[in-house]
Amino acid sequence: MADKTPYQVGFANHFATQAIPNTLPYGQNSPQQVPHGLYAEQLSGSAFTAPRKHNQRSWLYRIQPSVVQGDFSIFTQHEMILNSERPTPVPPNQMRWDPLPLPGKKTDFIQGLIPFVRNGNAKNLSGSLVYLYACNQDMEDCYFYNSDGEMLIVLQQGRLRFVTEFGIIEAEPSEIVIIPRGIKFTVELLEDSARGYVCENYGATLALPDLGPIGANGLANPRDFQYPTAWFEDREGDFSLLCKFQDHMWQAPIHHSPLDVVAWHGNYAPYKYDLRLFNTINTVSFDHPDPSIFTVLTSQTNTPGVANLDFVIFPSRWMVAENTFRPPYYHRNFMNEYMGSIYGAYDAKGNGFQPGGSSLHNCMHAHGPDAEAFNNASNVELKPEYYVDTLAFMFESCFVWEPTRFALETPLRQTDYLACWQKLPRHFKGCP
Ligand SMILES: [Fe+2]
Question: 288 an active-site residue?
């Protein structure tokens, strides 16, 4: 069967792709004259001197170099920046939210981003910012790049088309899309509306976790990551170039499409991954491995094993553990957990954690199954069971997630969240 997709596969491979034959220079990056009268431009995603396994760059062969643009002016009223204030002190409370409603007015993907929780900034290359998004309109004659961080987009509802400098990525709920720092793109809707989550990562570039004793295979396999093939548009007109830089939105006029890369090669490019392809590893005897066993991608700090950001999923899977309380146990953690739900029911919670909703449990603050889930799991006959049609995820970080004013004050916040644990009965009967 013919390959139906235009994608190239592998994780951060050194790809080479061209939309017009005989464009890529042979054996060098920047010849005196690039074929077809194109300009050569390097995009570095790491310091030049980063160790080879962390070094990322691509060479782009384009109609106009990126310097051909107007001056930026500040765009103070952009939705992506508004509402990002984080009141202090940060409340230690466990929090949970209902899903973000779809917008009532015309809203594109970038306008639809609402800052929600945050634990770092671009100034010190550390932490992340989580947005919710809801949109119902294409970005028209408007292009965007993010100087502050790479964007991990978790689609929850509605298919999207990301038209980037490197080619086109179409994605649907259950897939994630990663747009590395600095890459220009525009977003079109493939349905009437769309909703999901975005994590803007300021720390180390997301990478596959090491597998240790698991071995060479398992979790997210490198061959399942899909990168676009070269695609370009040769279009002139009056367009807008948006840029997020140092926590502000900037806007510049541009009179040609910046998506004019005819060919590229390198290992720094946008990609997508289908979470349904995740090879879930779990116990086949008793007890729980820690949820780190479900890590798809990780951004590490300089401290070994301590993540700036782990992207972890809880997919459909078999549960076979013997003599084990199967939902997540009660716990208080060093790490800070922001969770979202893509579809289905999460095994430790009743109806309160809905697809499109989210929860927050920061460092050392207790959480675990609600009273009903505890009662069921403590008494159910333990047979092998398939958790079907469920997909939740977690952005886990060593840094405390600070909710924005929007997150704290929105009516979407479930102010009675703690009630789900308060009916846990006392079973202790005292000393015999
Ligand atoms: Fe947790």
Answer: yes
